Amino acid sequence: MIRYAYIIPLLPLASFFINIAVGKRLPRKGDWLCLATILAGLVMSVGIFLEVFQAYDPNFKYHVVTPWLTVADRFTINVGILVDNLTAVMLLVVTGVSTLVHLFSIGYMHGDPRYSRYFAYLSIFSFSMLGLVLSESFFFIFIFWELVGLSSYLLIGFWFEKKSASDAGKKAFITTHIGDVGFLIGNMIIFVTCGVFGFDEVFQAIGQGKLSGTLLTIAGIGVFCGAIGKSAQFPLHVWLPDAMEGPTPVSALIHAATMVAAGVYLVGRVYPMFTPDAFLFIAYIGFITLFIAATIALTQNDIKKVLAYSTVSQLGYMIMGLGVGGYTAGLAHLATHAAFKACLFLGSGSVIHALHTQDLREMGGLRKKMPITFVTFLIATLAIAGVPGFSGFFSKDMILAAALEFGMRNPAHYVLFFGALFTAGMTAFYMFRLVIMAFLGEPKDHHKFDHAHESPPNMWVPLVVLAIFSFSFWFKSPFVEKGWVQTLITKPATVADVAKAPVATASMEHAAVMAGEATHAATPAEGGGHDAVPAAHGEKAVAPAHAEAGEHDAHLAHMAHSYAMYSSVAVGALGIFLGFVVYFFGWINPARVANSVKPLYNFLLNKWYFDELYDATVINGSIAFSKFLAWFDLHVVDGLVNLAAQLGVFVSFLVGKFDNYVVDGAVNGVASATIGGGSILRRMQTGKLYHYVFVLAGGALVIFLIKAF
Amino acid sequence: MTLDKLLVIAAALFCCGLYTVMTRRNAVAVLMGVELILNATNINFVAFSFFLNRMMGGQIFAVFVIVLAAAEAAVALAIFLRMFSTTGTVEVDAADELKG
After folding, report:
1. Of A212, A316, A376, B57, which residue is the least packed, with the fewest Cβ within 10 Å?
2. Are B97 and A690 inside 8 Å of each other by CB?
3. What percent of chain B has a predicted confidence (pLDDT) above 90?
4. Does this complex have an ipTM over 0.90?
């Protein structure tokens, strides 16, 4: 099965071409074709996953390449696929969510005038996302990276008659491309220094020291910039909430479960190339994002906006998790988040479908009208809030543990853990605010409430499936120490490990001797500051220190894990409790609280004024710059062009005069000289015979006389 | 009879012919002048032949000239007939269409 992995993305590609060309003429406008291709992909992904799962090997890797483009003997770009444990999980996540969203869309998009085009776009998205997951080189991952950006743009602006939707599409496309420039720069640095594109080859080249030091940090941050754009991290997070203008199933598929997670996947995929500085940068970007987005989500009244900001916040968790060294944690959260957030989005789509409004203040009491939607939505909410037994608890807890461990090792960065912990409480609070406002209490708009009804089966079946996958036993059985996720998705050796080892040992209090030994042993690794030393060498050098430090490390990790678990459960419970206090029992009036801190409330309601800030700086700045360029063009460039033109005219004038008077004068002069000569000479031809004879005789006489004398 | 006297007669005859060609307007008269000139040359040919080398070359050449003069007269008279039928005259002054 794994040998045929390349077919998985090709099937949706074929369905895209068929649907875009003749989709309207197919029976049912071709939706079954898209569904069938992605379903086939799901079946194959399950097969691949089972194969990988049976192997149960953390280092499992299936990697085939074939030359695609060879430039003389300079370099070769390979095309190929790479299937390891991470890829297998991602394939399952992408095809699974995509299949359910296809199914949901059949009901949700029913009767849309561009129904077949919608499914064609879903197919091109599936193709690009699966291609991205299977890529084995920086080159191809960048191509698919741009393709998912394109399909995201097409689907956000799917209802382009609405100006807000087409604007949101453009905003998403442009904003993510700012990050992509960084990605491109990172790729260029990698290619120029290493001369290869394949992930394995690049990591090998970095291990040999071809790319190291500051340049490696810059390359890592550059590649991470792509993730900042695509995964909506601060400061490029502004596009994702606007992207909710697209159809709700699209929000679930692209802007919650898969494409926005591509950035996280990318960071996980190129994990070995990050230096400690790059990791710190990644961790803080993720931290800022998760905090800002959660505070904004507290105040939003649009059901999809709340979910959008919660997505941004959760993506921040994943990125921070990866940044603090929690490789498994970040990627596990990616998988669990895909399920419960897709469930939340599809649930909100079901609500919007029934009520035709997105405003939370017009909802309420839907529990009775839409029981299935309510139950599934509640399960997913419990998962995101981090209630034990649900998938979100399992993965978020791992992230918090990783952050705490990072804080224990580097006390300067404790803020990451406490900020993330506080945000976990906020997450529970705003998610329960959403559930209570929408499903519990009394209906606020009776007219809309009376028309509400449960969605048809093809819409609630995906909800149920996704809700089932929001339980944690899929990822880790409660009876074992380590789930399959922890076993299979293990952190690869990174450039940072080499440099980080002495820091870890130095943080130990009663091991001065050991620390000394470690520092001594790690001296070659520390040689040039953070300069990357061949990973193999570094590890060998650190190994003796690590053997003794390993036990301590395990102890530290265990301690961090239990602290993080207790505190996150406590904070989550507190958030849920507060949610009920404020919005269900009404013991605290939210409006009064909002009034008492009006400036703060407005600040959050207006999303920290990011859009206004960007309007004032970036957009107005570029408009002013464009105006300056227009002025420059009109006056300086056009002036030069006009000057050149006038010079040309003047030279031509001179040349014309020369031609008219000198050249033509010479020609005319010859002619008139000929005429003048002719008019004189013609007189000799009198036509009188005796004249000729006279001249003849006279001439003869002259000759005679000359001869005579 | 000496060579000098013959040459003088031939020169006088040539001058008469030349004068006729230059002064007469009638094409036939001009042709007659041309005949005089040809005959003046004939006298020269015969005279030089007789007095200088005694060979018969000069006399034979004179016969050729006479034959040539006859042919010439025939051609010229035909031209005059055509000229008369187109212009109605044989005055040489009238045939001046090619003048400059």
Report:
1. B57
2. no
3. 59
4. no
